[in-house]
Amino acid sequence: MIVINLLYEREDIFPKAAFGYLIPSRENSHLLGVLFDSCVRHQTDKQKRGSQLTVMMGGAWFDQ
Q1: Burial of 13 by CB count in 10 Å (0-12 exposed, 13-18 middle, 19+ buried)?
Q2: Contacts 24+ apart (CB under 8 A), 15-20
Q3: Cα–Cα distance between 43 and 24 in angstroms, integer?
Q4: Which are the contacts of 58, defined by CB distance < 8 A and separation ≥ 6?
């Protein structure tokens, strides 16, 4: 599995506060899911540091 962490300076890139989403295996995508870290952590993180997300790729569906 590959995990990619992204940080954007803007704080308003997500359409609404959410945990993230998963991609069903029937979609035949290398992408497994995306976590909206800054939405999940916003209540405990007193310093606003933009928008953070984690992209998960690979796993059993990735053949490379």
Answers
A1: middle
A2: 17/42, 20/53, 20/54
A3: 29
A4: 1, 2, 30, 32
Q: Domain coordinates of the chain in residue numbers?
A: 2-61
Beta strands in 1-64 (DSSP E): 2-8, 20-22, 31-35, 51-57
Q: What DSSP element (H or E) covers 39? A: helix 37-41
Contacts of 23 (CB under 8 A, 6+ apart): 29, 31, 32, 33
pLDDT at residue 51, as a whole number: 84
Q: Is the pLDDT of residue 34 over 80?
A: yes
